[in-house]
Amino acid sequence: MAKLHVSTTINGEPTEFLCEPSQSMLDVLRGPLGLTGSKEGCGSGDCGACTITLDGRLVCSCLVLAAEAQDREIRTIEGMAEGDRLHPLQQKFLEMAALQCGICTPGVLMAARTLLEQNPDPTETEARFWLAGNLCRCTGYDKIIRAVLDTAAEMREAAR
Amino acid sequence: MTDIRYLAPRTLDEAVGAFAAARGAARILAGGTDLLVQMRAGAVRPGLIVDIKRIAEMTSIEETADGGFRIGAAVSGAVLGEHPRFGQVWPGVLEAVNLIGSTQVQGRASPGGNLCNASPAGDSVPAMIAADAVVTVQGPDGRRQMPVAAVPAGPGRTNLAPGEILVSFTLPPRPRGAGDAYLRMIPRTEMDIAVVGCGVNLTLRDGTCTAARVGLGAVAPTVLLVGEAGKALVGSRLDAAAIEAAAAACRAACRPIDDKRGTIAYRTRIAGVLLKRTVGIAADRAGRA
């Protein structure tokens, strides 16, 4: 069976790739496209380590077929910093040590960015529920949540 | 795995044609939150995947002229939640749909997929049954409608005929004084599969219940419409005796299994408890509507 040819946009760049019909978006990102920032934890949509956005919508890339990316817009963790300038969430995660092993971090950052885009002033409860699909086995979550809420406060201040 | 084909047709006729032609070997892809997990686990090996998300009718929400709603089968939970009116009219259906999985899963998972996956514990199904939702299905022989309660045949099996695809849900218009609610019992606060799920949809007029439907999940091989529970509420002022009678009807309808999530005795007891709590929320909403 011939491979499928897919034209899509990844982090603003028009991108083309070939994939098997059953191949996941995560496989193609990490394999042929060399974008290994998205991690594979469970492969079944439970852990959120492979979180990307598809047409602005937060999804687990392990549960998206690569073929579905045709004519869609994908954002991954690789597109979060602008050159050397980290996104405020990335900067805050470093300052507050909101990570340890780092495997969950790309997914957490992608999910947290979407949260703050939709809700610049989330309550702690809202942040915890929003990030419930991102499992972290190191931090106990408190540092992550505090970093997200601190970033939100800073971004609100900066926008005034 | 290389013998799998992937199609993303733009029209329903094309989708039905390809799906039917592949006979049993094809699977429908809506959000993929069940299908891709099952494929990865080796539980299903489809020869053809038909992605229905490029068909406009499958992904649109429309308020019908009579004040009802038509929801495409592949509409995601997140999209349904962002609709300006749906959650005001059907808060119970929306809370049931939005309970399915994480934010990421909500970005993809659909009520159509939840129904066709045919898990007895599917969260949206009891609420849809309580809402008296009807589905439109299309197959090689044309279109037909069936009540949501008639779709599941058993765990993982539906009563859709070979080649038929679930197209949309139609929810009826709401009278004044109508309210619905969905509650599920899980041992955590989020991200789990229902031990019992209960959907209630009722109408109050001057404090008297004039209509009531109860859907019960995870207590039988399929999600149940508990007709006797609705009957016990209708005509009452939702006093303690009527609610207890409805709870007893729910317990009597239970035919659950023992498994790691709960025992038969526990599930049966919880079915009654959830009925009472869900009626309370639905009645509050009805009182404000």
Question: How are the SSEs ordered, and which strands pair?
Answer:
The complex is a heterodimer of chains A (160) and B (289).
Chain A lengths: L3 E7 L2 E7 L5 H6 L20 E4 L2 E4 L12 E3 L12 H8 L9 H14 L5 H7 L11 H18 L1
Parallel strand pairs in A: 1-5
Antiparallel strand pairs in A: 1-2, 3-4, 3-5
Helix pairs in contact in A: 2-5
Chain B lengths: L4 E3 L4 H10 L4 E4 L5 H6 L7 E4 L9 E3 L5 E4 L4 H6 L3 H4 L1 H8 L4 H4 L4 H7 L6 H7 L3 E6 L2 E6 L4 E3 L2 E2 L6 E7 L6 E8 L10 E10 L2 E10 L6 E2 L1 H7 L6 H14 L10 H25 L1
Parallel strand pairs in B: 1-3, 2-3
Antiparallel strand pairs in B: 4-5, 5-10, 6-7, 6-10, 8-9, 11-12, 12-13, 13-14
Helix pairs in contact in B: 5-8, 9-10, 10-11
What do you see in this structure?
The complex is a heterodimer of chains A (160) and B (289). By secondary structure, chain A is an alpha+beta fold. Chain A has helices at 25-30, 88-95, 105-118, 124-130, 142-159, and strands spanning 4-10, 13-19, 51-54, 57-60, 73-75. Chain A folds into two domains: 4-79, Beta-grasp domain (Ubiquitin-like (UB roll)), CATH 3.10.20; 88-159, DNA polymerase, domain 1, CATH 1.10.150.120. Helices cover 33% and strands 16% of the residues of chain A. Chain A has a five-stranded mixed sheet, covered by helices on one side. In chain A, strand 3 (51-54) and strand 4 (57-60) form a beta hairpin. In chain A, helix 2 (88-95) packs across helix 5. The relative contact order of chain A is 0.15. Chain B is an alpha+beta fold and 289 residues long. Chain B has two domains: 5-119 and 134-171, Uridine Diphospho-n-acetylenolpyruvylglucosamine Reductase, domain 3, CATH 3.30.465.10; 178-288, Enolase-like, domain 1. Chain B has eleven helices and 14 strands. The chains are: A alpha+beta (160), B alpha+beta (289). At the A-B interface, strand 4 of A face helix 2 and helix 6 of B.
